[in-house]
Structures are given as structure tokens and as C-alpha cells.
Please model this.
Amino acid sequence: QVRLVESGGGLVQAGGSLRLSCVASGSSFSLSAMGWYRQAPGKQRELVARIISGGNTMYADSAKGRFTISRDNAKNTVYLQMDSLKPEDTAVYYCTHGGPGGVWGQGTQVTVSS
Model:
């Protein structure tokens, strides 16, 4: 049974940075695709970034150039470094294991004030 625990959310001013972490347990982490999604109030959940086992990454257009996804297989952890944050980045951020049909974490709130 895979379990994901996110951390690192919080309140930050526009232009600031946050680093989200997601620790996975109970899985062959290094072989799994990992991703970050977010859901803002009143909006659908959307993909932010994902990273596959070989390290290749992809980003939503809104995240390109500002966010960086990375993984540390020795620590079973995936990160989302978020720089130049904007108020529209405010959302609950979720970590996923194995794609959107896989396992989800409980989410961590990110609030960006203007």
C-alpha cells in the first residue's frame, strides 16, 4: 500500500518561493512516475508537473520557467521548487504516485498574497 505525505506549503508573498516535499512509503519509488497537481477554489484539479523514473520532466505552461520538479530516489521523495510565486498559484497542492489514476496524498495548502 503506497502512502504519500506532502509538506512545505504555507503563506508567502507574491514573488516569493516555497519548496514542497512528498515522501512515499510502501512502493518501488524509483520506478514510479510522480507528479504534482493543484486545485484552486472553484476550479478543477490541474497537473502542475510530473517526473518519470528516468528523470524526464514535463510542466504545465503556467509552471514553466518558475517551478522545478525533482526527485531523490534514495529518500523516496519528490520535490516541487516554486519560485516567483503569483497569487494565482494559490491552491491545494497534491502529490501523486503512478499518475492521476494512482495514489494521491492529502494535499498541502499554498497561499500567495499580493
Summary: The CA atoms of residues 27 and 45 lie 24 Å apart. The mean pLDDT is 94. The longest strand covers residues 18-25.
